[in-house]
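task queued by scheduler; priority normal; single chain, no ligands, no partner chains; default sampling; output format set to structure tokens
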Amino acid sequence: VIGSTTDGGPAWTTVFGVSSAAFTSADASTAVAVTDAPTAGQKLVITDILVSTDTAMNIEFECETTGVIVAKVFLPANGTAQITPRSKLKLATADKKLFLDASVSGNVACTVWYYSEA
């Protein structure tokens, strides 16, 4: 049909979590990986983050070893946040994972969807 559109989906292969599993922890107050490492020599591009907690806390998402914060949310007890960038959220350093760092201990669940890119 002339003028019709279709959605063939994204042009990349998205993966999620750590080894294809959501991250959960009772204490993420020390930075911990919420993604696998990207393909060797490439950078992670984050497409979506879903995070929730049962305790009021600040949560920072940061690049492994560099500590560069790419996103931060302030969550109330029993709060949930969805982060869906409208453009690429690409880590600046190749071969690095995305880490979550909570301001206090408490139950946290997080799933990150991402892909690797040169």
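post-processing summary
- The longest strand covers residues 43-53.
- The beta strands are 15-16, 23-25, 32-33, 43-53, 57-63, 69-75, 79-83, 89-90, 98-102, 108-117.
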